[in-house]
Fold this protein.
Amino acid sequence: MNKMNEKQRLDSQQANSSDKKSEKDYSKYFERVITAPSLKDAKKRGKEEVKYHNDFSIPEEFRGMGDGRKFYIRTYGCQMNEHDTEVMAGIFLALGYEPTDSTEDANVILLNTCAIRENAENKVFGELGHLKALKMENPDLLIGVCGCMSQEESVVNKILKTYHHVDMIFGTHNIHRLPHILNEAYLSKEMVVEVWSKEGDVIENLPKVRRGNIKAWVNIMYGCDKFCTYCIVPYTRGKERSRRPDEIIQEVRHLAAQGYQEVTLLGQNVNAYGKDFDDIKYGLGDLMEELRKIDIPRIRFTTSHPRDFDDHLIKVLAKGGNLMDHIHLPVQSGSTDVLKIMARKYTREQYLELVRKIKAAIPDVALSTDIIVGYPNETDEQFEETMSLYREVGFEAAYTFIYSPREGTPAAKMVDNVPLEVKKERLQRLNNLVNELSAQAMKKYEGQMVEVLVDGESKNNPDVLAGYTTKNKLVNFKGPKTAIGKIVKVKIIEAKTWSLNGEMVEELEAAEVK
Ligand code: 5AD
Ligand code: SF4
């Protein structure tokens, strides 16, 4: 993107976000705010065409900005954020900065934040509090807040009012602007806020530094148009924009050639992949059909929405090979009435029918899910429906959450009439069931041989190696360090609730890998 375009775009963003309320809120900080976020603007879904760019470069005047300086990024939340951190690290390196693992050594500290639940936000505010002492010791230190929280007006307001040691706030659509934002922060020494509420275009050639050389994340789409009533993501990540298939295929081919063993395709709602293309009819099933032909041992994708999970995709996944036999399929609730007020756009029966189809096509598939308990108005009976659905599907794992109201979402305006004690008790009961079914699924592996992609040493014991099976089960086993980064056969000796212990039998020859 050339500089002129950037300027025009910035102006139009400012014009977009000039609704009276946010102007009033920010007026007293005006000289510091370049563009402030507005959830109201973020909600809009325009028909404008998404533009694709391949012309990102570090402007001449910023080259060498980081010479002799170090950066540190702390990442909260989902894989999308982890991957954004890889891109920001790539930009820092291109500017001449070096990475550091210590906040004390850093000249720039970024908190890449998550807004999905209140406790995720509280962690960030806690960390910002800790960083104040560092800033006092070292006034030249730059502290930045980016990621989903910076898309929220209330968060930006709170930081402007209370956390004066923060130097910059920038949004999820402004990552490619990092060189300009850093420059502005160095020059002004005032808090720099650049948050576009409306999503940007897709920029293909941003640099990235991948964490590790075994597994890689690949974005296939950005944003979400589902607007589930509890969820802040459609506001913080903008409208659905799919990357072009040839760009994705090329990236996966490149990763395979570099020796990566596993790719996880990322999107907030990967099943909507391609729905925004005007010129071609192309969905996730078509993409997976292409990717399965690439010589890379493992391909996964996350996160799915049941509504858009179509028969073509199921048919392609059933071909197996490098398409993994584990599907994460968030259900959120087992009650049709609760699903309705969540605006999930499917019923309990439709979800079960989808599961039936998936199991018929991929008989040994492992299913995992996300569940929210204690939604406004959720009755005991409705919660029991979630428990019974969990058993009926036979999920092998779940992320379970107590509902957390997010300002600006429709659910936050609903009367939350379920007492916290009841929510906690429901969560406890659900977690007991989740553990029970996980332990059951694990038990079946005792005495079996599994294929494990070895990530490295186990976190708790450096003498033990750890990795994951095709169904995403964690396996700990004794084996040579040379196995790291390879797919090996492990015989399972003992099953625990959330992991398996085994003994390595052999390294698989490349040709044997399914
Ligand atoms: N409260 C609790 N859980 C939530 N999730 C999303 N929004 C909320 C919220 N407001 C959960 C959903 C989603 C997962 C990523 O986080 O289960 O699938
Ligand atoms: Fe949020 Fe997922 Fe629903 Fe999108 S589909 S609104 S990301 S829960």
Q: What stands out?
A: The first helix runs from residue 3 to 16.
